[in-house]
Amino acid sequence: MALTELEVRRTAKVMCEFLNRKRPPMHVRDQLDLPWTLEGQSVYLLEVRRLKDGRQHERSFAKATWVHTKIIRKIYWERADIKWHGYEPVAAVKSIQGFCDAVEADPYGCFWGQGEAIRCAGAGSIPVLS
After folding, report:
1. Which residues contact residue 75 at a Cβ distance below 8 angstroms, ignoring those fewer than 6 apart?
2. N or C: which end of the chain has fewer CB within 10 A?
């Protein structure tokens, strides 16, 4: 079942507010930016980088998929194997704002790479070197 027009607008409002806080400064955005996209039932957070040859490289790093039968959004992160894995600390949320909150908090460093250890999806504890 597709998202309603109201749900799409609500999603856009929340995602824009979230990314306005997270995006790099304006003078850096031609080199690195954090857009989002909505495809079917899923919201994707993207990282767009300009390569040295001028081309852009785009990759998804977070996804929230609406599960209508359970009235939840499941949260996923994309590992180095280019596959989506359930986000262990917060598997599901009830709202798009909950998704944004979970991505921002990111206790395992899966989305932003911060923290003392990375322990995503059973990867064990890997110290982050300073």
Report:
1. 62, 63, 64, 86, 87, 90, 91, 92, 93, 99, 102, 103
2. C
